[in-house]
Amino acid sequence: MGESRNRTGTAYALTVLTAILPGHEEKLRQTIESLPLGEDSPLARLGTIHTSRIQIVDHLVYQGAPQKRDQLRSNYLVFTAAFDGADLDVFLASIADKLPAAADSWWRHCVGYPGLKDRAAFGHWIRHNQLHTSLFAVASPNRSVSDVVDSLALREQVLEFAIANQGGDAVELQKRFRTTFVEGI
Question: Model pTM?
Fold first, then answer.
């Protein structure tokens, strides 16, 4: 298994499961719920995340017999991120550089969290709590987030061009197309 786990194409999947300090569940829940979403999310600042989720697991669902009822020993914070590249250390350094306050806001409620100032300790803590991922999906596993964003912007530009140039003369349309798309490359 070794090197193939946690990867699909050029994307890496990180799943971290950490026990929440007793009595910190509600504050952590408020912290997570107050995080901005979409482009305003602190994780969007990294620019390399395809998908991510931060959630609390506080119980297991009992689906009836023959399943055995299981109880958690603790509540857990689950952090998942599928990101560009295969180097976890680079990703963790990016978290420490670009969103230390945000990362501290959720992980400080977890058992053994060393903070981000000691990057070696932080990296060791993440790896200690990491669950290796062998199945995950990224819509474009061989394209970076930047490539996907650029492709979506080009799609919008082509749509705007098509709408603005409906019913035009073919020769003029070809000239405008070349000016807009070919000569600009």
Answer: 0.76
Instruction: Say whether the peptide bond before residue 36 is cis (omega within 30 degrees of 0).
Output: no
SS3 annotation, 91-135 = HHHHHHHHCHHHHHHHHCCECCCCCCCCHHHHHHHHHHHECCCCC
pLDDT digits (tens, 9 = 90+) for 85-96: 868 999 999 999
pLDDT at 26 over 70: yes
**52 — phi, psi (to 5°)?**
-155, 155
Distance CA 15, CA 81 (A): 7
Contacts of 88 (CB under 8 A, 6+ apart): 6, 12, 14, 123, 126, 127
